[in-house]
Amino acid sequence: MKNITSLDHQIYTCIFNIFPSGPFEKEINLNVYVPPEVSVFPDVTPVVGDSEVILVSCIATSRPASEVTWNLGDLNSSLKIKTDISAGPNDYYTVSSRLIGVPSKELNEQNVQCVVNHTSLKKEIVLNYALVIHYPPQIVYITSVNPPTTHQEFLCIAVANPKPTLYIWSRENKALTGRVDFDRLEIQLNSDSNGLYKCNASNQYGNGVGTLQMQFSTDISPDCTTCWILFTTLIVLNVAAFFVWRFNLCSKQIFDLREGSWPAVRVRVSTNSPTHNREPNSTDSS
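Request: output the structure for the sequence above.
Response:
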């Protein structure tokens, strides 16, 4: 037989006659192996909780049945495996292997592998899968986006899966006067900005709240602070330049003295001095 397909998986009867004995027949069972079709998926996306649920399933359909196992790495002790085999038409078999465990935030994005072996395969099939666990915002905090000037922008960050779809900004005991853009808040820095700010982040499973205590000093405004910094820097640069100039001048004078190039010192004697007007006496002449 040539060009065999999965439909050729049948029992064939070979009949022949031998004279004078009569007809003879022989049944031939033709087994056509069909490689497995494998898929890995969650039945329902698990949500963080306290009860065991199916985290992910690995399904392999083939003829004959496949062998399905898991590589779990460090998760071996925390997850269970349940495998079922069901027969279908034309000797097809479906092997369903499921990972069972208590869904937690720590399991989210952990990698597992479904491994499938079959008679028709020269090499096993390995499918990687990152576990998906949904949970409400569990950690929410507010962080600054830019250095403070006259305004400051803040970002609300929430650890959740899926990401929050709603952010609600508020201010304790006062009306919120800043500009809100989804997960961002921009406020003007002045004495009226002081207070406790809150960000309420939520997805379809719940919500979480982050807070920020804002305390702005009015002694020196942000613009004035910049001016003082520039003024101080200018003074330091001028002082440094003066010392460099003095150092170079002293170095040049020392060098000139060593080389003998320092200008000679001349002393002029006044013509009115007593020594100059003294007349020579007889003793001197002799």
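The two ends are 158 Å apart (CA to CA).
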